[in-house]
Amino acid sequence: MDQNDELRLLRGACAASQTGAWYYRVGEDRVEWTPLLHDLFAVPEGTELNLGFALSFYVGNSRQPVTEAVSACLAKGTSWNLDVQCRSMTGRMFWARTIGEAILQDGRVVALQGAFQDISRERAAVDEQMRAQAELSFVLRTMTDGFYLLDNNWRFTFLNAASEHMLRRDPEELVGQCIWEEFPETCGTIFEQTYRAVSETGHSKTFQTYFAPLESWFHVTVHPAQTGIAVHFRDVTREVSEQRDLRLFRTAIDAMTTGAVMLERGEGAIDFWPIMYANAAAIKLQDHQTVQDCHRRDDHRSRHA
């Protein structure tokens, strides 16, 4: 590959990555740009550029860091690599990465050179990711169900506000601590078995169990996460208690020799409300009534035949 071919490849790579180069001669106060930088800043090629004019394209909070970086490079030869915001001659705002280094001659800085890349797309993707993370964090922090993350060493890395209420612990005290040490009662239980299984297999699992230290029933769903596992849990003590009471109630009702039914409130007269539950005596009575109704209909037909 000759120099011309290599130059074409380098220019192609620079164009594809939106990267240009610049050069500053100290004694002449003259800045040179490659064509891509002229395009980015909408400055016609052939325009005479000095350091002050080049720095004027950096806006807002970006200008001072770049100015200080250039000054440090001129004075001490310190290089820089900064992500900054710029505005072109047409007013287009964009994010860029500026890199600079000193060229020394006999220990003295005689010039600066570097690269300049348009990173607007990269920055937009990062900003979108940060917004998505902020929204997710808000949802997790404000949701009424408990949620926490464990890393690969079983240490808490995040707990939402609902976890504080259900676990009766301050999330700030738990972050960075090992779950098996903070909740030793979980060792050897379905909690540890399921957590380790999800971590090893990468498959989500759900279970419901009673946790004696907190005197509560929990419905727990465990998902694999990038750096450990994610645990979503609900306190279902009230639901379990209601289901238990309902079972006891049905057992007592079923033992009755008299018929009993539970109706779901509906529209119109109570006679038309749907039956939710009927004990054995009520079903037997209903079957007997149905037989009697059939006999009446048969008797009515025979008398009018």
From TrEMBL:
PAS domain mapped to chain residues: 132-177
Top-level taxonomy: Bacteria, Pseudomonadati, Pseudomonadota, Alphaproteobacteria, Rhodobacterales
TM annotation in the entry: none
Protein name (record): PAS domain-containing protein
UniProt organism field: Paracoccus hibiscisoli
